[in-house]
Amino acid sequence: MPKILNYGRQSVDDRDISAVADALETDYLTTGPRVEAFEAMLCEITGAEHCIACANGTAALHLACLALNVGKGDVGLTSPISFLASANCIEYCGGRADFIDIDPGTLCLCPQQLDLYCRENKPPKVVIPVDFAGLGADLAAIAELSKKHGFSLVEDAAHALGSFYQAEGERYACGSCTHTDLAVFSFHPVKTITTGEGGAVMTNDRSLAERVRCLRNHGMVRHDALLQQHGGWAYEMSSLGFNYRITDIQCALGVSQLSRLDRFTNRRRQIVSMYNHAFSKHDNLVLPHQDLALNACPHLYPIRLKDGAAKRRQVYERLKADNIFCQVHYIPIYFQPYYADKYGYAKGRCPQAERYYSQALSLPLFPAMSDRDALRVIERFQFALGSASSHRKM
Ligand SMILES: Cc1ncc(COP(=O)(O)O)c(C=O)c1O
Fold this sequence. Notes:
- The protein has 394 residues and is α/β, with parallel strands linked by helices.
- It has helices at residues 14-24, 33-46, 57-67, 85-92, 111-120, 139-149, 206-216, 224-230, 248-258, 261-279, 309-321, 337-343, 351-359, 371-387, and strands at 5-6, 50-54, 75-78, 96-99, 126-128, 152-156, 164-167, 170-173, 182-186, 199-203, 220-221, 236-237, 285-286, 301-305, 324-325, 360-363.
């Protein structure tokens, strides 16, 4: 059988394995020096002042919303073309998640639609734009709207470690928080680098950073005055936090992986160039908008089949039979029964997102792919496209 190619996969090498083995021999298994080193590297890479590494990207989003005091009665807006967690974090806090349609070119949250929502409704408490597939959202435009309408801003940069966005001719690192209150990363194995499970919250605001750090560890503080007053064992909890800590073992892997971030980025960009070159000849395909000139780090390759859903299903199944496991990123979040049943969100709510969803298919993209793997995907995808009928529903 041909080698299995998934839409994404981690790249773990001997250096990663020995970094983890070394960590296991130290005194620290949970929060220790490797967590701090990992956080410092993420600050260095993004330029953000503070980093709080945590259990996963979902926990990072939850912590960000908690730090901004999202609560009962608040509305939070995000893109429907994202993973569930981008919306669920608002619901965890007792708020209501709602959705703003995407820009059909970038596939990120559309600033014009956001402005329209804010003019027609009570402005939201928080907006969570997603750097979809590694392409930075239009954060400068959304930041302008946050000033105009008075909402807080969290960048969901789960797809965008090592990536950049442009604003007024300048280049900014995703996760730098230049235009946002907070940003989050995920280190799930399909992401740019992995810690197994893992995530991080970034910010340039010291008090938000302190709040996130405290909420990551049960909402507990142990400051000097407290220790002097009660003794070295003292701790105090004033707000309800969580155990969202990441371990030193995971961060040993994270530090080792981060040292190869440039290599991972370059390889992803090379594979995207191969795909773009091969597929740009096809009139019935829409290629993803990957800003290679910006040195961005592409996370997914969501190609669109203009012929639509019936054909997409056949192509997906045919590639699967060839051991090429694509995915669709994503089913619009408000299609999920939880959201549809709770709020009556119906089909037609975000037409651009729904149209994109009916056509999209993410082809394999990860740094460990060889040129041969990429050529195999190109050849099998073209074959599957040629043999699929646009009329037959499967
Ligand atoms: C856009 C986006 N946000 C948030 C998350 C949640 O990250 P995690 O899986 O680390 O909890 C993911 C993960 O798939 C994601 O793709």
